[in-house]
Amino acid sequence: VQLQASGGGSVQPGGSLRLSCVASGFTFGNFWMYWVRSVPGKRREWVSFIDGNGADTYYQDYAKGRFIISRDNAKNTVYLQMNSLKPEDTALYYCARAPFASYYYTDYDCWGQGTEVTVSS
After folding, report:
1. Per residue in 51-96, pLDDT tens?
2. Which of 12, 34, 35, 44 lies 20 to 30 A from 58 at CA?
């Protein structure tokens, strides 16, 4: 079971990035997929998550209208399109999975390695 995240980088405020997470070793469509971010000194928090079919999505308030989560089950991949990025979006972004919807990252049973996003002028 493995999740491999990529797509992070350094952008200026107002820029965009698309994160990708490729899954392997399990039936991808059976799991909710999560994007979680971590900043030193702050609790890790979910950013967005999506159900197995891609029909149901959830976003933190700060992500609504700027970020879009999607998935391609044929490619075993979940994406996070991040637009209008702000300096406060700077974080290490992880993808994770769970067999159900949960706001609690302790319920996520498999994590990718994280991809760094830096938003700075």
Report:
1. 999 999 999 999 999 999 999 999 999 999 999 999 999 999 999 9
2. 12
3-state secondary structure (DSSP) of residue 23: strand
Phi, psi at residue 107, to the nearest 5°?
-85, -10
In whole angstroms, what separates CA 6 from the centre of its chain?
10
Banded pLDDT at 40 (limits 50, 70, 90): confident
CA distance 43 to 68: 22
Show the 3-state SS of 38-76.
ECCCCCCEEEEEECCCCCCEEECCCCCCCEEEEEECCCC
- The three-state secondary structure class of 32 is strand
